[in-house]
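In the laboratory, one determines a bound structure by crystallizing the protein with its ligand and collecting diffraction data. In a computational setting the workflow is compressed into a single prediction: the sequence and the ligand go in, and a structural description comes out. We illustrate the idea with N-(iminomethyl)-L-glutamic acid.
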Amino acid sequence: MSILIENIKELMQVEGTPRLLVKGKEMSKIATIKDAFLFIKDGKISAFGKMSELNKDEILFSTSDIQVINATGRMVFPSFVDSHTHLVYPASREIEYIDKIKGLSYEEIARRGGGILNSAKLMQDASEDELVESSLKRLNEIIRYGTGAVEIKSGYGLTVDSELKMLRVIKRLKHLSPLTIKATFLGAHSIPLEYRGNQTKYVDTVINEMLPQAAEENLADYIDVFCDTGFFTVEDTERILEAGMKYNIRGKIHANELDYSGGIQAGVKYNALSVDHLEFTGKKEIEALLKSETMPTVLPGAAFFLGMRYAPVREMMDAGLPVALASDFNPGSSPSGNMQLIVSMACILYKMLPEEAINATTINTAYAMGISDKLGSIAVGKKANVFITSEIPTYEYMPYYYGTNKVETVILNGEVIN
Ligand code: NIG
Ligand code: FE
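The predicted complex, in structure-token form:
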């Protein structure tokens, strides 16, 4: 099956020589082709260019099963890559949302056994089938908003059985969904109440019981720790990242959301693929990141929803760093996986240019998922995960006209998704 998209108003994020990430000043540049075509074959991007260069007869004669899409007035983007979510969860938590409106902080809610522990309690009784069904609905929702690849974390289990259950659910989702999915083991998401005062013992369980089983069943692509005040310490984090390395599982950690926790430096020290949140990022943290291969990832949805300070994205880019932006889709701090909204938030709240926000939600998040050789831009040989917009005047209109879905047609693995 092949697809020829012709008369594309503007084809976004094209690359002759594909890069693995974009950093510093380069983030404000996006290569595009106006009045373009895109040819997709066997699930991959096969060719693209200006309409004037299209040899349509040759393509039609050489391809038997071909669908031609006329994209007049519409743009084509590489699908968004969402490198940080917790979208497998047992139930929504709008009651806490009301508590937050009334003035309780995220940490106060957590201390009362709410927050992550609330989800963990409900997770004990949720069946794998129920979780697969509700998660698939969320995956289908984000597909319609233009996401083509997503990372999903465990972390609402917090017992050996429940963490493995979550990871097995994610493994099933990999087979059931057309999305490219990576699984991250987040046993160290919160300290269960029965381990309070003895948190090292819980970290032992994560390292000695959960991780070996997850590795044995090949359930985890990455490993995560919530390294922050009131959660896991730098020492806990380093132990867990080191344990992951023994199984060749790289870190993607929650760091510096609530304080200058040392999480960023710990992530860098253990060559984490990404450090995420980063509201508390200063000079030292930026310096550590500059010497690393770790992708700084900011989660605007969580900062917005919790009314927190915003990560110093401009300083980070000015210093020459790359920045990635993900949704953090979860029931407590970011109940949305809409990456179009993340792009708008990036522009409005972080004063990022649309080009910077697009790079941060495509190629750089692909890097933060370890898949930027296959996704995150329009390049020959990359997986054909793209979307066609509705009729829009400019690409800047995407973040500007926020709150509505501008994605009209989704193509994943070279097939139109209905
Ligand atoms: O990324 N910061 C830690 N974990 C999640 C919140 C999960 C929850 O509240 O359920 C986050 O924001
Ligand atoms: Fe998170």
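The chain has a mean pLDDT of 97. Keep in mind that any predicted model is a hypothesis to be tested, not a measurement.
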